[in-house]
Design a protein that fits this description.
274 residues; alpha/beta; nine-stranded mixed beta sheet; two-stranded antiparallel ribbon; 11 strands; binds 3-hydroxy-5-(hydroxymethyl)-2-methylisonicotinaldehyde
């Protein structure tokens, strides 16, 4: 069985980060060892959230993993809200050189950094990307990483080809998620190893819901680790997000309830089909 070290926060309500990564990766028959960066009552899009940083605990937990000689096939890192936490994650990534390193540079969305993500934190998160296997920024995060203005009025995914290639100076496989063009949502990808571009589109749905990036990257990571091609991994992950958003519209009257990915995961039928 493959084993993933999933470094991300626990948001107790709101469905993102570890509460998404653990079930999705597990549904692919892959073990997940969570390493929580922080504990929140709810994700930061929900006002009044309580947050507790777990950097100190992260170091102690990883030290015990080392004592146990645990081996990870993959390290997947996501939301890290403190400079000291990012330093710990940087050391863990270095300690796992040669393994599949997936870095989702969670920093912001819709052209803005998250409340918790100061300039210094964003700068340090960018330093985690160098030497990764896969990186999965959204457009906002890609613009921060590449020091480019947030683009508006995009008419073709080819606009992002140069961005993907620049991102691939840092990582073997670069992906930009959540590109809205006309009535479609695209995820685009460049594989430096084969010098190939890939993209997958799904119809746009008018619902802004948190956690879609975490679903995408968790699903892509599990697909990739289990030997699926880049295109197939992109297809499965994009469809997973699309179907979850569709279900969200049907099931949740209150958008605060978060994305309805569980019915898609239920019984593993989605994953078996694809
Ligand atoms: O889905 C990204 C994410 C992860 N973790 C926390 C967040 C967010 C986005 O808002 O607030 C705590």
């Amino acid at each position: 069985m493959k084993r993933v070290l999933a470094i991300n926060d626990i948001s107790c309500f709101g469905k993102c980060s570890l509460t998404v990564a653990i079930p999705i990766i597990s549904a692919f028959g892959t073990e997940v060892c969570p390493l929580p960066t922080s504990l929140l009552s709810a994700h930061t899009g929900i006002s009044g959230y309580y947050k507790f940083d777990l950097t100190e605990q992260m170091s102690k937990i990883y030290a015990h993993f080392k004592e146990l000689n645990l081996n990870f096939d993959c390290v997947y890192s996501g939301y890290i809200p403190s400079l000291s936490g990012i330093s710990v994650v940087s050391d863990i990534l270095k300690d796992n050189k040669g393994k599949v390193l997936v870095v989702d540079p969670v920093m912001g969305d819709n052209g803005e950094a998250y409340q918790t993500h100061t300039f210094d934190i964003c700068d340090k998160i960018c330093s985690l990307l160098n030497g990764a296997t896969i990186i999965t920024p959204n457009i906002t995060e890609a613009a921060i990483i590449l020091h480019k203005p947030y683009p508006t009025n995009i008419t073709s995914t080819s606009f992002f080809n140069s961005w993907l290639k620049e991102l691939a100076n840092l990582s073997e496989i670069s992906i930009i998620t959540g590109i809205l063009i006309g009535d479609n949502l695209y995820n685009v990808c460049y594989d430096r190893r084969s010098d190939e571009f890939f993209e997958y589109q799904t119809p746009k749905i008018n619902a802004m819901v948190s956690g879609t990036g975490d679903i995408f990257t968790s699903c892509f990571t599990a697909c990739f680790l289990n030997g699926k091609s880049i295109y197939n991994s992109l297809e499965i992950s994009s469809l997973f997000v699309y179907q979850s958003i569709l279900k969200t519209g049907i099931l949740n009257k209150n958008i605060l309830d978060g994305i309805a990915f569980e019915p898609i995961l239920k019984g593993g039928t989605f994953i078996e089909k694809v």
